[in-house]
Amino acid sequence: MPIYVDFEPIGRRGECPNGQSLLDCARQLGVELINLCGGHGSCGRCVVQVMAGVVSDPTPEEEKFLTPARLQADYRLACRTFPLTDCKVRVPPESLSTPQRTQVESEDYHLEVAPPVRAYRVSVPPPSLEDLRGDAERFRDVLSERHGLTVSTVDVQAFQALSTHLRTQDWTVQAVVRDGQEIVAVLPPEPRPLGLAVDLGTTKIAAYLLDLLSGKTLAARGMMNPQIAYGEDVIARITYAQQSPKQAEHLRGLVVAALNRAAAEMATQVGAKATHIVEAVLVGNTAMHHLFLGLPVGPLAQAPYVPVVTSALDVKARDLGMTIAPGAYIHLLPNIAGYVGADHVAALLATDIAHTGEATLLLDIGTNTEVCLAQRGRMTSLSCASGPAFEGAHISCGMRAASGAIEHLRLVGDRVEFQTIGDGPPVGMCGSGILDALAQLRRAGIVDRRGRMRTHPRVREGNT
Amino acid sequence: MPIYVDFEPIGRRGECPNGQSLLDCARQLGVELINLCGGHGSCGRCVVQVMAGVVSDPTPEEEKFLTPARLQADYRLACRTFPLTDCKVRVPPESLSTPQRTQVESEDYHLEVAPPVRAYRVSVPPPSLEDLRGDAERFRDVLSERHGLTVSTVDVQAFQALSTHLRTQDWTVQAVVRDGQEIVAVLPPEPRPLGLAVDLGTTKIAAYLLDLLSGKTLAARGMMNPQIAYGEDVIARITYAQQSPKQAEHLRGLVVAALNRAAAEMATQVGAKATHIVEAVLVGNTAMHHLFLGLPVGPLAQAPYVPVVTSALDVKARDLGMTIAPGAYIHLLPNIAGYVGADHVAALLATDIAHTGEATLLLDIGTNTEVCLAQRGRMTSLSCASGPAFEGAHISCGMRAASGAIEHLRLVGDRVEFQTIGDGPPVGMCGSGILDALAQLRRAGIVDRRGRMRTHPRVREGNT
Question: Do A133 and B157 touch (CB under 8 A)?
Answer without folding.
Answer: no
